[in-house]
Amino acid sequence: MPKVGDFYESFRNNEFVLMIDGTESPGVTKVSGLSEGEHDTIEQPDGGTNHVYKIASAKIKFEPLTVERYVDGSPEDKRFKDWFQQTFKLGSATQGGSGVRKNGLIIKRHNGTPVLQFAFYNAWVKSSKFTDLEAGAGNPFKQTIVLEHEGLERVE
Protein backbone atom coordinates (compact mmCIF):
# COMPACT_ATOMS: atom_id res chain seq x y z
CA MET A 1 0.00 0.00 0.00
CA PRO A 2 1.40 3.47 -0.76
CA LYS A 3 2.41 5.45 2.30
CA VAL A 4 1.34 9.08 2.23
CA GLY A 5 2.75 11.02 5.17
CA ASP A 6 1.93 9.04 8.31
CA PHE A 7 -0.79 6.77 6.88
CA TYR A 8 -1.26 4.17 4.17
CA GLU A 9 -3.54 5.19 1.33
CA SER A 10 -6.10 2.55 0.33
CA PHE A 11 -6.00 1.07 -3.14
CA ARG A 12 -8.61 2.36 -5.55
CA ASN A 13 -10.92 -0.28 -7.01
CA ASN A 14 -10.95 0.93 -10.62
CA GLU A 15 -7.68 -0.52 -11.90
CA PHE A 16 -7.79 -4.28 -12.56
CA VAL A 17 -7.68 -6.89 -15.30
CA LEU A 18 -9.36 -10.28 -15.70
CA MET A 19 -7.30 -13.10 -17.22
CA ILE A 20 -8.87 -16.37 -18.34
CA ASP A 21 -6.56 -19.22 -19.32
CA GLY A 22 -3.65 -16.76 -19.57
CA THR A 23 -5.39 -14.27 -21.87
CA GLU A 24 -6.36 -10.78 -20.70
CA SER A 25 -10.01 -9.83 -21.16
CA PRO A 26 -10.20 -6.14 -22.02
CA GLY A 27 -13.53 -4.42 -21.67
CA VAL A 28 -14.30 -5.95 -18.27
CA THR A 29 -15.74 -3.15 -16.15
CA LYS A 30 -16.70 -4.96 -12.96
CA VAL A 31 -15.97 -8.19 -11.10
CA SER A 32 -18.01 -9.00 -8.00
CA GLY A 33 -18.11 -11.99 -5.70
CA LEU A 34 -14.51 -11.79 -4.50
CA SER A 35 -15.06 -14.00 -1.48
CA GLU A 36 -12.31 -16.23 -0.12
CA GLY A 37 -14.84 -18.77 1.07
CA GLU A 38 -17.31 -19.46 3.80
CA HIS A 39 -17.85 -22.32 6.23
CA ASP A 40 -21.30 -23.49 7.21
CA THR A 41 -21.97 -23.30 10.93
CA ILE A 42 -23.07 -26.39 12.81
CA GLU A 43 -24.96 -25.86 16.04
CA GLN A 44 -24.13 -28.52 18.62
CA PRO A 45 -26.45 -28.46 21.67
CA ASP A 46 -24.95 -29.36 25.04
CA GLY A 47 -27.28 -32.04 26.43
CA GLY A 48 -29.17 -31.08 29.60
CA THR A 49 -28.28 -27.36 29.33
CA ASN A 50 -29.46 -24.35 27.36
CA HIS A 51 -26.02 -23.85 25.81
CA VAL A 52 -25.39 -24.39 22.09
CA TYR A 53 -21.84 -24.63 20.76
CA LYS A 54 -21.17 -23.35 17.26
CA ILE A 55 -18.55 -25.14 15.20
CA ALA A 56 -17.39 -24.85 11.61
CA SER A 57 -18.28 -27.54 9.12
CA ALA A 58 -15.58 -29.09 6.97
CA LYS A 59 -17.12 -27.74 3.76
CA ILE A 60 -16.05 -24.46 2.19
CA LYS A 61 -18.44 -22.68 -0.18
CA PHE A 62 -17.52 -19.93 -2.64
CA GLU A 63 -19.68 -17.17 -4.09
CA PRO A 64 -20.00 -17.10 -7.87
CA LEU A 65 -18.04 -14.41 -9.71
CA THR A 66 -20.10 -11.89 -11.64
CA VAL A 67 -18.27 -10.28 -14.57
CA GLU A 68 -19.60 -7.23 -16.42
CA ARG A 69 -18.06 -6.37 -19.74
CA TYR A 70 -18.70 -4.12 -22.72
CA VAL A 71 -19.89 -5.76 -25.93
CA ASP A 72 -17.87 -4.02 -28.62
CA GLY A 73 -17.31 -6.43 -31.52
CA SER A 74 -13.78 -7.29 -30.35
CA PRO A 75 -12.33 -10.83 -30.35
CA GLU A 76 -13.31 -10.98 -26.65
CA ASP A 77 -16.97 -11.11 -27.68
CA LYS A 78 -16.25 -14.29 -29.62
CA ARG A 79 -14.19 -15.85 -26.77
CA PHE A 80 -17.02 -15.40 -24.26
CA LYS A 81 -19.64 -16.49 -26.81
CA ASP A 82 -17.65 -19.66 -27.61
CA TRP A 83 -17.28 -20.49 -23.89
CA PHE A 84 -21.03 -19.99 -23.40
CA GLN A 85 -21.86 -22.18 -26.41
CA GLN A 86 -19.47 -24.93 -25.26
CA THR A 87 -21.16 -24.92 -21.86
CA PHE A 88 -24.77 -24.84 -23.05
CA LYS A 89 -24.42 -26.56 -26.47
CA LEU A 90 -27.64 -25.03 -27.72
CA GLY A 91 -29.48 -27.24 -30.20
CA SER A 92 -27.56 -30.34 -29.15
CA ALA A 93 -29.01 -33.50 -27.65
CA THR A 94 -26.43 -33.36 -24.84
CA GLN A 95 -25.45 -30.33 -22.79
CA GLY A 96 -21.87 -29.36 -21.86
CA GLY A 97 -22.86 -28.21 -18.39
CA SER A 98 -20.07 -27.71 -15.91
CA GLY A 99 -17.65 -29.85 -17.91
CA VAL A 100 -16.19 -26.85 -19.77
CA ARG A 101 -14.01 -25.29 -17.08
CA LYS A 102 -11.33 -22.62 -17.15
CA ASN A 103 -8.90 -21.11 -14.66
CA GLY A 104 -8.23 -17.43 -14.30
CA LEU A 105 -6.76 -14.50 -12.42
CA ILE A 106 -8.09 -11.16 -11.33
CA ILE A 107 -5.14 -8.80 -11.07
CA LYS A 108 -5.59 -5.64 -9.00
CA ARG A 109 -3.20 -2.87 -10.00
CA HIS A 110 -2.27 0.41 -8.36
CA ASN A 111 -0.84 3.04 -10.71
CA GLY A 112 -0.13 0.25 -13.21
CA THR A 113 1.74 -2.00 -10.75
CA PRO A 114 0.15 -5.33 -9.73
CA VAL A 115 -0.49 -5.28 -5.97
CA LEU A 116 -2.94 -8.15 -5.45
CA GLN A 117 -4.02 -11.23 -7.40
CA PHE A 118 -6.97 -13.55 -6.97
CA ALA A 119 -6.81 -16.94 -8.70
CA PHE A 120 -10.01 -18.84 -9.43
CA TYR A 121 -10.14 -22.48 -10.42
CA ASN A 122 -12.36 -24.68 -12.59
CA ALA A 123 -14.85 -21.95 -13.49
CA TRP A 124 -17.77 -22.49 -15.83
CA VAL A 125 -20.44 -20.18 -17.23
CA LYS A 126 -23.55 -20.33 -15.08
CA SER A 127 -25.42 -17.60 -16.94
CA SER A 128 -25.02 -14.84 -19.49
CA LYS A 129 -27.31 -11.88 -20.01
CA PHE A 130 -27.24 -8.52 -21.73
CA THR A 131 -28.47 -5.05 -20.86
CA ASP A 132 -31.91 -4.04 -22.04
CA LEU A 133 -32.24 -2.49 -25.48
CA GLU A 134 -33.73 0.95 -25.10
CA ALA A 135 -34.40 3.49 -27.86
CA GLY A 136 -32.76 6.83 -27.14
CA ALA A 137 -30.42 5.50 -24.44
CA GLY A 138 -26.77 6.44 -24.65
CA ASN A 139 -25.38 3.72 -22.41
CA PRO A 140 -22.87 1.18 -23.73
CA PHE A 141 -24.18 -2.34 -24.36
CA LYS A 142 -23.01 -4.69 -21.58
CA GLN A 143 -22.91 -8.40 -20.96
CA THR A 144 -23.14 -9.86 -17.44
CA ILE A 145 -21.61 -13.31 -17.01
CA VAL A 146 -21.92 -15.36 -13.84
CA LEU A 147 -19.10 -17.85 -13.28
CA GLU A 148 -19.35 -20.70 -10.80
CA HIS A 149 -15.97 -21.95 -9.61
CA GLU A 150 -14.32 -24.36 -7.20
CA GLY A 151 -12.14 -21.91 -5.35
CA LEU A 152 -10.81 -18.38 -5.13
CA GLU A 153 -7.63 -17.48 -3.32
CA ARG A 154 -5.18 -14.63 -3.03
CA VAL A 155 -1.88 -15.53 -4.65
CA GLU A 156 1.56 -13.91 -4.76
Report mean pLDDT, rounded to a whole number.
88
Q: The CATH topology is what?
A: Pnp Oxidase, Chain A
Number of helical stretches of at least 4 residues: 1
Biggest pleated sheet = 8 strands, antiparallel
First-to-last CA distance: 15 Å
**Rg over alpha carbons:** 20 Å
Layout: helices, strands, pairs:
Elements: E1 3-4, E2 7-8, E3 16-20, E4 23-24, E5 28-32, E6 38-45, E7 52-61, E8 65-70, H1 75-88, E9 102-110, E10 113-130, E11 142-148, E12 152-155
Antiparallel strand pairs: 1-2, 3-4, 3-9, 5-8, 6-7, 8-11, 9-10, 10-11, 10-12
Task: Characterise the protein shown here.
Helix content is 9%, strand content 50%. The chain is mainly beta. Strands 3, 4, 5, 8, 9, 10, 11 and 12 form an eight-stranded antiparallel β-sheet that branches. Strand 9 and strand 10 form a beta hairpin. The longest helix is centred in the middle third of the chain and has 14 residues. It is globular. The chain starts with a strand and ends with a strand.
